[in-house]
Amino acid sequence: MTIAMGIAAIAVHYFMQPSGLIVGSISGLSIVIYRLTGIPVSAITFSINLILLVLAYFLIGKEFGIKTVYTALILSPWLRLFEWLDAKYDIDPATFLGFPNGTTDYWFYLLCFVFILSATQAILFNINASTGGLDILAKIVNKYLHIDIGTSVTVAGAIICCSAFFIPGNTLYLILLGFIGTWINGIVVDYFTAGLNAKKRVCIISPDYEKIRDFTVNTLKRGCTLYNAKGGYSQDDKVELQAILTNEEFAKLMEMIKDQDIHAFITAGRVSEVYGLWLRHSKNHSELDYNRPLNI
Asked: How many CB atoms lie within 10 A of CB 151?
């Protein structure tokens, strides 16, 4: 979480701030307030996050709240560190990135910021944490209204983007870029989150289904379902085994089938989200008695 927030701070400090873009986030709102008041971005971010963290603890849950307290509070020190380095060593982000005479490429800044931040958000969401700020609002909307997390990020961010109109001299071009960046952010967060949460739905028809069932239950520690099936071509009675596995578990299963030379017809499809007993099984993996059936 510490490293992830350090990367997020790099995205904010070296790509968002120098570009003048206000992408929908608490950092973006902090930049607006900074330009209007002169208060450091790190101090504004810290203050807003304190309020949102209280909401996270009570509305989302203790685990999410505690983890987000840590990630949100560590962001401000990271930003302060980069502010100190800039002041001490006179670092110009545009020059550092190779832009002549301090000029900027807005699209380059926008895409770098969005992709770096989106990857960080997806990683933290995957471990039931967040970068704080806007992510807290998005998570609340996701939990209570059951809207995709990426869509929640986009809606909340678009509202914050509107604050860019209060910055004197800010052009409509930059404001529209901020809206575009917020929209891309939501899409990329959904993409990364789906990739991190992806599972395999495996369907296997084999005369040696009992060996596969035993390996799935006793080695992989996963449940499976057996269906009676009838071959459409041969008219033979068969058994189909279905299981939801992680990518690593699927690789182990395929390796076992290959090593034991098991004849099988196998299909596997991607499952982006799994709820219910599968997740509880994963969380309490080391505590379950696999010989005791689950009451469903």
From this structure: 17
